[in-house]
Specification:
Chain lengths: 227, 253
């Protein structure tokens, strides 16, 4: 049997692809935070990314592969897990597990739905075409205006906050779990790794949700950030 | 104490099974859980009814035969003990106790609360041994073993193969059991010869039996009567990855 078809192999693939996607989520936030430096900074960053050309497509290809591997292993593992206990317990109590760990499948499906919406909204720009195709004063696509005008609509902001809550719930178990699956843990590091994983999830949640909240609160406006 | 027991009764592997309720009286708080079941069975025999089948042997927490899920927890609410060492003082007069067998596809029910754990034996047969003719026991200090390695190996070797890890796992995974058996031999000099082949074939055997996959809930560690730590699962993952991705001289044989 090839190693990646075994239970541990699939877990390792899931962990490794998850960490790749975590890297993307972290880098994405660093880019987003440029919104606080005003329209020119964010739009210039967006242009720089697009100008990467082939490199950008290579990165997108890599992320797509990671996503497909992550989703494929999760489906395969979940089906096997369901089959492993055909008759459920009448009474089942738990002592160590967390809500995040028990809801990985639910949060994962939510993250996928959120990802589809997010791509349609900001990448393919089909959900709000009226505000998504503006140009800035340098003749570049005005990403800043698109973001601010979107988040000024409470419904869109709430959708993003719920989406990020799902991402961070997923990560709060996922990061520690990935380290365990890759065999990077020992008895002393397990609690520390779990704690750091949850901390990263919380920091990402605060960083990401701060943007729609700042827009809704009027701290970030279409002209720039309030002093 | 008087108790109401809600017990899983199943005539055979083919029977569908159902819960039945029984009343027991005069239960002393000093009785073990199994003695309480003995008293139920005496009562059932006196009434000329079929006694409840449940696994037990040593009744001192070392054989790994008892296999009861008590109120939703494998081996009951006490940490680090098997059901045989759970005492009735943990319950209150008038309590209703739900008792189920281990539930996993790989552990088919034989009768009532007794399950077939041969799947574990087949995993051990796949590699949980050292196939070296040892002859007479060698002088103890001929092969030095560092103290920390001996301690870690002993912590893993404490596994009594009861299957509570599988019973408690939300995915019915056997990873803690296999991790303990692989780690135990991987830490000792005698286990080195077959180290890579062992982990590969034991994981393959585990997968063949239809156990679930570990998703790191750590319920196994909480249920384990020997409190075997999930650090051994990380070690198993490491051992398996190393053995699967690197070719070694072992593979030539």
């Amino acid at each position: 049997m090839r190693w990646y078809r075994s239970s541990i192999g699939k877990k390792v693939l899931m962990a490794a692809s998850g960490l790749v996607l975590l890297g993307f989520v972290a880098m994405h936030l660093l880019g987003n935070l440029l919104i606080y430096q005003g329209p020119d900074a964010l739009n210039a960053y967006a242009k720089k990314l697009r100008d990467l050309g082939l490199l950008l497509w290579a990165a997108r290809g890599g992320l797509l592969v990671a996503l497909v591997v992550h989703v494929w292993t999760s489906i395969a593992l979940s089906l096997e897990n369901r089959r492993a206990r055909p008759q459920r317990y009448a009474v089942q109590r738990t002592r160590e597990t967390t809500i995040a760990a028990r809801s990985m499948l639910v949060s994962g499906v939510m993250v996928t739905a959120y990802l589809v919406y997010h791509l349609l909204h900001f990448t393919f720009r089909v959900t709000n075409p009226d505000i998504s195709h503006a140009m800035d004063r340098f003749g570049h696509p005005d990403v800043y205006a698109m973001v601010v005008l979107s988040f000024q609509q409470p419904a869109i902001s709430i959708a993003y906050i719920i989406g990020m809550a799902a991402v961070c719930l997923h990560l709060s178990h996922g990061i520690g779990s990935a380290c365990q699956s890759l065999g990077l843990n020992d008895e002393r590091t397990i609690p520390a790794v779990a704690f750091i994983g949850r901390l990263i999830a919380v920091v990402l949640f605060i960083g990401y949700t701060a943007i729609p909240l700042s827009v809704l609160a009027g701290l970030v406006t279409i002209r720039g950030t309030l002093p | 104490m008087k108790l109401t027991l809600r017990l899983w009764r199943q005539r055979s592997a083919r029977d569908t099974g159902r819960f039945e309720q029984y009343q027991v009286a005069d239960i002393s708080p000093d009785m073990s859980f199994l003695e309480m079941l003995d008293s139920l069975n005496e009562q059932l025999c006196a009434e000329r009814k079929e006694p409840v089948a449940f696994d037990h042997d040593c009744r001192e927490g070392i054989c790994g035969m008892c296999s009861l899920v008590i109120n939703g927890l494998a081996h009951g609410s006490d940490r680090g003990v098997a059901a045989c060492q759970l005492h009735m003082r943990r319950f209150k007069d008038g309590d209703m106790i739900t008792i189920e067998p281990w539930r996993a596809k790989a552990f088919p029910i034989i009768k009532d609360l007794v399950v077939d754990r041969s799947a574990f034996d087949r995993i051990i047969q796949a590699g949980g041994y050292v196939s070296v003719d040892t002859g007479d026991a060698p002088e103890a200090n001929t092969v030095p073993v560092p103290k920390p390695a001996a301690e870690t190996a002993m912590d893993a070797a404490a596994c009594i193969g009861c299957g509570a890890c599988v019973a408690a796992c939300p995915n019915a995974s056997a990873m803690l059991f296999v991790a303990a058996k692989v780690s135990h031999l991987a830490k000792l000099p005698q286990g080195q010869e077959e180290r890579r082949r062992r982990v590969r074939s034991m994981v393959e055997a585990m997968d063949r039996e239809g156990f679930g996959n570990c998703t790191n809930h750590f319920e196994c560690m909480a249920a384990c009567p020997k409190s075997i730590h999930v650090t051994f699962i990380a070690r198993l993952n490491r051992e398996y990855l190393k053995a699967s991705t690197r070719r070694s001289s072992e593979d030539i044989h």
